[in-house]
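Worked example 2:
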Amino acid sequence: MGLFRRLFGNGTPDGFTGTLEPDETVIAHTAVRGGEHLVVTTLGLWVPGPRRIGWHLISKVKWEGSLRVVEAVEASTEGPVVLLEDLPAQRFTVDDPQRVLRAISQRVECSIRQRERVESPGVWILQRKIPGRDGVVWQARGDAGVDLEAVRAAVVPFVARLAG
């Protein structure tokens, strides 16, 4: 642990029980009603539990009277492309969402290096940086209601183009 962290702490809120990586830095945090916290770091979003979601696995974030976060899971692959499926949205009631919402949105957007849209059936193909690692990953996720096999079919021509 560096001298700065020993003297001044790691920037986490009081009561946070997660364990940050040595090079992980806190950017913003806010209390969640019920006593836990949302903590935005360089490597991801810590949600109550605590559990960190990497920036490359956050599909959507939006303010709808509460903070709505949609996390994706790696469901399969098609060649070098990781196929994602969205989990049900998580909602967090917070008193002061502005700084955290802005920080989350910026981090998610900055993880995207390249994007391509397949309109039918409604699939996004993204090249994303994985926080804390070198390199990038190709990911594909369907719009709401688009099943994994439709995502796979939409990605096949893209994979063929990558192979050249």
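The two ends are 46 Å apart (CA to CA). The chain has three helices and eleven strands.
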